[in-house]
Amino acid sequence: MTNRSPNRLRVLDDHVAALRECRRCPQMIGPVVTGRPVWSEVLLIGQAPGTHEGPAGKPFAWTAGKTLFRWFAAHGLDEEAVRDRVYMAAVCRCFPGKDPKGGDRVPAPDEIERCRTYLAAEVALLRPRLVLPVGKLAIAQVLPAAPLADVVGRVHAATFHGVATDVIPLPHPSGASTWHRTEPGKTLLAQALELIGRHPAWRGLRRAA
Ligand code: SF4
């Protein structure tokens, strides 16, 4: 059975369908937001959807997404191509709600743990050659804790849920964050995007055009 065999594609479709029905976290606000069930060697991990993603029915549907897709477009794949060719996962797939102190609530450890089972299943199915965690919360699921400036701009060889893979972390593209717009973040982001553009798994996605 090859990676893209009908059986495996059906398993991935079934996985995403089951994920969309998940209601395991009482504090989380649905609907569950998933990317398209695309078989890909590149796995992108966001943090959690915001208020706009649920109604839109897709991850990175608002301003942060515009920035993220602009970053990728400079390296050969526009938004539709990314959505069609990159498996888009997240630390948590439901909107955590607002934090009374401002911004979105950070998912609780038990919520992250519950949703991790879906991520682990996706890694087992896809066996990605390249993982792109976006933002601190996502990076922390894949690499040991470290400041952004120590991890962005490099390729990390890692074992993620038992699968050996390259990891290229990205900062969160939120407009509320200045990290990627000021130094050293600006230069480190440019380095990270260059590394993504040159990675064989990403180049393979570009050739799939
Ligand atoms: S956050 Fe994840 S585990 Fe929790 S209800 Fe949503 S999909 Fe299920």
Please characterize this protein's 3D structure.
The protein has 209 residues and is an alpha/beta fold. It has one domain: Uracil-DNA glycosylase-like domain (Uracil-DNA Glycosylase, subunit E, 3-Layer(aba) Sandwich). 42% of the residues lie in helices and 11% in strands. It is built from nine helices and five strands, in the order αβαααβαβααββαα. A five-stranded mixed beta sheet has the order 2-1-3-5-4. A hairpin with a 2-residue loop joins strand 4 and strand 5 (163-167). Helix 1 packs antiparallel against helix 5. It is globular and about 40 Å long. The chain starts with 5 loop residues before the first helix and ends with a helix. The relative contact order is 0.16. Bound molecules: iron/sulfur cluster (SF4). Residues 19, 22-25, 28, 32, 92-94, 111, 114-115 line the site of iron/sulfur cluster.
Shape: globular
> Helical residue percent?
40-55%
Intertermini distance: 24 Å
Overall tally of domains = 1
Largest sheet entry = 5 strands, mixed
SS summary, helix count: 9
CATH class: Alpha Beta
CATH architecture: 3-Layer(aba) Sandwich
CATH topology: Uracil-DNA Glycosylase, subunit E
Strand order of the largest sheet: 2-1-3-5-4
